[in-house]
């Protein structure tokens, strides 16, 4: 049986709101960085941009938003398709593995992102 | 068809004909097997697929950010690498997936405000998402090449 114990906020409404708030933050970040890249950058201006504290905060905010957004999204996908109903008894095990794996990847992304942003 | 009035108990012929209705177990509609999905369903499924792809694509994007900020030589090497035909294709694919997922997401936000929630509205919204995504992907491709 699929339960809500691995959902983002243990509440559908919480997840629904998180999904949308994080989506707006990611969209703003993608449009901003996309605009910067499209207008043409060299190393100096690119490095200068990512040396600004506000840009690092904006980037980390976008990365954390991506984490929450992806967790809610993948949770929806996994709990719809990797289930006992769809796959039999192995479904629940597969779903747990998939969620554990995506959690590890997500954590890696965040730590890696912090390293990149603060030049560690 | 004969329908029961509220509060009316089924009896006689009606009871025999509709006895199966009492069984409330879910029915497998075999949606995947028949594959006659409306455009709204395709939009929903591709939104999910592109979302999963983007989760993996972020590894490439973080690698690109890491390389671009590592130093001037590294920045130039990355620019050359991304300029190669194969990587251009990869970048265009990531961009197209991002564009689609973003536009389909904005459609969700618009619908959250109660706009286009009818069946006709949903179909129109789905068609707009496809048209806009194709257009933006072509523009992105032209910009890349």
Distance between the ends of chain A = 44 Å
In helices, the fraction of residues of chain A equals over 70%
Rg of chain A, nearest Å: 18 Å
Classify the helix fraction of chain B into a percent range. over 70%
**Low-confidence sequence ranges of chain A:** none
Q: How many structural units, i.e. domains of chain A? A: 1
Report the count of strand segments of chain B. Answer: 0
Helical segment count of chain A:
5
CATH top level assignment of chain B: Mainly Alpha
Mean pLDDT level of chain A: 92
Largest interface by Cβ-Cβ < 8 Å:
A-B, 24 and 24 residues
Biggest beta-sheet profile of chain A: none
> Major sheet of chain B: size, sense and barrel closure?
none
Percent range for β-strand residues of chain A:
under 5%
CATH architecture of chain A: Up-down Bundle
Q: Give the number of DSSP strands of chain A.
A: 0
Q: Report the order of strands and helices of chain B.
A: HHHHHH
- Morphology call of chain B: elongated
Q: Domain count of chain B, please report it.
A: 1
What is the CATH H-level superfamily of chain B? Answer: Fumarate reductase/succinate dehydrogenase, transmembrane subunit
Short précis:
The complex is a heterodimer of chains A (120) and B (145). By secondary structure, chain A is mostly helical.
Q: What structural keywords apply?
A:
heterodimer; A: mainly alpha; 3 helical TM bundles of succinate and fumarate reductases; elongated; B: mainly alpha; 74% helix
Structural commentary:
The complex is a heterodimer of chains A (120) and B (145). Chain A is an all-alpha fold and 120 residues long. Chain A has one domain: Fumarate reductase/succinate dehydrogenase, transmembrane subunit (3 helical TM bundles of succinate and fumarate reductases), CATH 1.20.1300.10. Helices cover 81% and strands 0% of the residues of chain A. Chain A has five helices and no strands. Chain A has helices spanning 12-38, 43-51, 53-81, 84-87, 90-117. The radius of gyration of chain A is 18 Å and the shape is elongated. The relative contact order of chain A is 0.12. The mean pLDDT of chain A is 92. Chain B is mostly helical. Chain B has a single domain (33-144), classed as 3 helical TM bundles of succinate and fumarate reductases (Up-down Bundle), CATH 1.20.1300. In chain B, helix 3 (39-69) packs antiparallel against helix 4, helix 3 packs across helix 5 and helix 5 (85-112) packs antiparallel against helix 6. The chains are: A mainly alpha (120), B mainly alpha (145). Chain A binds chain B through residues 20, 23-24, 27, 30, 38, 42-43, 46-47, 50, 66, 70, 73-74, 76-77, 102, 105, 109, 112-113, 116, 119, and chain B through 48, 51-52, 54-55, 58-59, 62, 65-66, 68-69, 71-72, 75-76, 98, 102, 105-106, 108-109, 112, 143.
């Amino acid at each position: 049986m699929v339960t809500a114990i691995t959902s983002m906020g243990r509440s559908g409404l919480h997840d629904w709101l998180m999904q949308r708030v994080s989506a707006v933050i990611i969209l703003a970040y993608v449009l901003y960085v996309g605009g910067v890249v499209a207008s043409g950058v060299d190393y100096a201006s690119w490095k200068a941009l990512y040396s600004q504290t506000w840009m690092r905060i904006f980037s980390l905010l976008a990365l954390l938003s991506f984490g929450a957004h992806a967790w809610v999204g993948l949770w929806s996908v996994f709990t719809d398709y990797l289930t006992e109903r769809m796959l039999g008894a192995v479904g629940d095990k597969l779903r747990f593995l998939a969620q554990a794996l995506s959690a590890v990847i997500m954590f890696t992304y965040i730590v890696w992102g912090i390293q990149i942003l603060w030049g560690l | 068809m004969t329908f029961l009035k509220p509060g009316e108990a089924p009896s006689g012929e009606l009871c025999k004909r509709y006895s199966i209705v009492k069984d409330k177990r879910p029915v497998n509609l075999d949606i995947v097997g028949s594959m006659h999905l409306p455009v709204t369903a395709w939009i929903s499924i591709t939104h999910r697929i592109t979302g999963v792809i983007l989760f993996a694509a972020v590894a490439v994007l973080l690698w690109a950010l890491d390389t671009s900020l590592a130093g001037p030589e590294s920045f130039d090497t990355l620019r050359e690498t991304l300029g190669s035909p194969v990587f251009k294709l990869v970048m265009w694919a990531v961009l197209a997936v991002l564009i689609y997922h973003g536009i389909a997401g904005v459609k969700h936000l618009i619908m959250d405000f109660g706009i286009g929630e009818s069946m006709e509205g949903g179909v129109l919204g789905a068609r707009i998402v496809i048209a806009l995504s194709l257009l933006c992907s072509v523009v992105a491709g032209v910009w890349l090449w």
